[in-house]
Known about the structure:
This protein starts with 5 loop residues before the first helix and ends with a helix. By secondary structure, the protein is of the alpha+beta class. The strands form six sheets. Strands 12, 13, 14, 15, 16, 17 and 18 form a seven-stranded antiparallel sheet that branches. A five-stranded mixed sheet has the order 2-11-10-3-9. The protein has a four-stranded antiparallel sheet with strand order 5-4-7-8. Strand 21, helix 23 and strand 22 form a beta-alpha-beta unit. The protein contains 25 helices and 24 strands. It has five domains: 228 residues, D-amino Acid Aminotransferase, Chain A, domain 1, CATH 3.30.470; 114 residues, CATH 2.40.50.140; 84 residues, 5' to 3' exonuclease, C-terminal subdomain (DNA polymerase, domain 1); 98 residues, no CATH class; 68 residues, Rossmann fold (3-Layer(aba) Sandwich). The radius of gyration is 28 Å and the shape is globular. The longest helix has 21 residues. The mean pLDDT is 88. The site of 2-(butylsulfanyl)adenosine has 14 residues, from strand 3, strand 8 and strand 11.
Amino acid sequence: MPTDPRLADLARMHADLERHDRLYYAKAAPEISDSEYDDLKDRYERLADDLEVLAEQRHQKTPGSDHSEGFQTVRHDLPMLSLEKANTEADAFVVAGEDVAIDRLPTDRDARKRTSWGKLEAWERARRKDLALADSAPLPLVLEPKIDGMSVSLIYDGGKLIRAATRGDGVEGDVITAQVEASGAVPVTVKEQARFEVRGELYLPRAAFDALNRDLLAAGDKVLVNPRNGCAGMMKRKDAEALRGKGVKSFLYFVPPGLHRMTLPASQFERLAWLTAQGFQVHPGSVRVDGMAAAYTQCLSYTQVRPTLDHDIDGMVMKLDDTAAGERLGETEHHPRWGIAYKFPPERRATVLKAITVQVGKTGRLTPVAELEPVLIAQSTVSRASLHNFAELAAKDIRIGDTVVVQKAGEIIPQVVAVDLTKRPKNAKPVPWPTHCPTCATAVVEERRPDPSGKENVSHYCPNPACADQVRERLRHFGSRDAMDIRGLGSAVVNVVVDKLGVTRPDQLFALTAAQLAPLELEADVNDTKRTFGKKNADNLIAALSTAKPQGLAKVLAGLSVNGLGSKLSEDLAGRFGDWSTLLAFARAYVAGERAAVLAVRKKLKAEDKAEMAKLGVVPLAGVDDTTADTVFRQLTAAPMVAVLDGLATAGVSLSAKQVVTNAVAAVAGKSFVLTGTMPSLGRSEAEGLIKAAGGKTSGSVSKKTDYVVAGAEAGSKLDKAKELGVAVIDEAELKRMLGG
Ligand code: IVH
């Protein structure tokens, strides 16, 4: 039987979802909004239902980790899961972009299933069945605002906060005790003396977020995109003291079962009261209702309260009030069965499109930007919105003068989602595609390529690397958090450094002096006030440049704006080659078509390839396929790029792979460890983190160079190998002793 052609569509959507997961979690650089992601996921699930794809073969959102270098990791006693979501799918709204009362929803079952109420209704039916409850029996539910913050796990013992950790990948998180303590977001002492864990959300109130951004702007630094990212970034600052007085707050909502030794009420609502009595902040919008219909009605009315809150919420969480019943129901692989999250539809407003301007990106890509009549959406004024490319403008038939619908769901960049054709002025003209770069007037290159869903994508590029906008974007990227993290090198500063001091390449930044920078006049800010950079900011920037020098090869590579070379591949390449000259030699060999280099990259290997690799002693290069390798290595070996790296080396920037040592311990520093088996208390990555932080190295295989094998329960072949080679074998207790207790 021929295979269903829709399977190919499903596979493409699957790959697309995985790519967006990676962009969101691993790179913190989403290309699409949360609601666009949800739409894609909804379409995928519908097709997977039609094709009767088994649950275990479907896309599963597996959040990457929020782990940051230099932070100790710990294993959560119980994994930090996420909740099942109930949202209305983009094409299932009966009133555009709005959830409506139950009696206004379609009665048709299929249409209803795709609305938030349809999903909540199904959840309630399933839970009543699980609990053998009749439809008429009461079902007490606790409804809590879903805080759009950063999840945190706190452990108290003897009335004191002893550990705070991030969600991480759900299984292991980063220890942020010092940061949480300094932030003042949670009580450091509580009445309860027994050991217990409590989970909740850290958040940055909007006023604190605005104040922080004002300070960043005044220092010429990069502004934070939203309070959620702002909070997450702050809690990962190494200098915990800097968090004092910054206004981070918290709401706590969950005491996980298992860990605590005290008796708690068997009601979620009463547990919230217990948390309040302990001194925790509990969201004042939390209520107890009977049944899902009442909960949904409360969700609709809470949309009136939402704008009055001093923080962002992106939905409401419904939980069984009966915690004993909830614990009995257990969880699926990803979600507990005791709760579900209702998501607010993204906020939309209509406004007039005044003009289309063209933005030039760091790789020369031209993006149309909608200049809008300012409109208030989700508590902030929107006057610009992104459009992916010119083809999208044409496909949506968006014209200047049109009334357009703009959407924002707490995301970074608002979007134009539709045009109101009834309001189109008579003379509205389509937007022409660019023929010349708006910045340097170079003729534009048009590139047509299918996107992962098979649709043809048209992109426009300015091919001139010396184009002033590209130069500015590349410098901005070089200083960004993902790359060299140079504080004080915000947009306004980059602009003057390029325009007034003639800087065009990242290595030239390191030759700047405070005397050159201090008198520079920055562009007017939002309040139209002109500012000079000033001596203090100039000194800070010079200091930040100097601090950035030892960041290491991975960060340098990630900052080069090489197409296809993101943070992950940069880390892989730095880890594999160790320094720039070794990497460059390999890249040159690859570009020259040398067999060993080409084979190292090739993924589909024939038997003769494998034999040749063995003969030549080729070690495969992980994390890069040949299309990426072609573009990345070609760009890295280009003469202007090599000149930049030479310049960086001359400026004293480290081009070697870096090992993060936060607290070198003599017995461990420089020693190589292999971990095997299950250790009594330390998780695998927790132990690796401790060894690395103490200056040691870890490896996956035992060799003569291994100094210690740390063996836990059920250690297998690595332990045998260690004995065979006479490598010292130690246990967790010994490792802890070596680490200093
Ligand atoms: S209960 C199994 N209650 O929303 C997770 N979560 O997927 C139990 N969130 O990342 C979470 N406000 O961090 C719960 N009142 C609330 C919440 C809440 C925000 C976050 C949570 C999780 C996501 C749910």
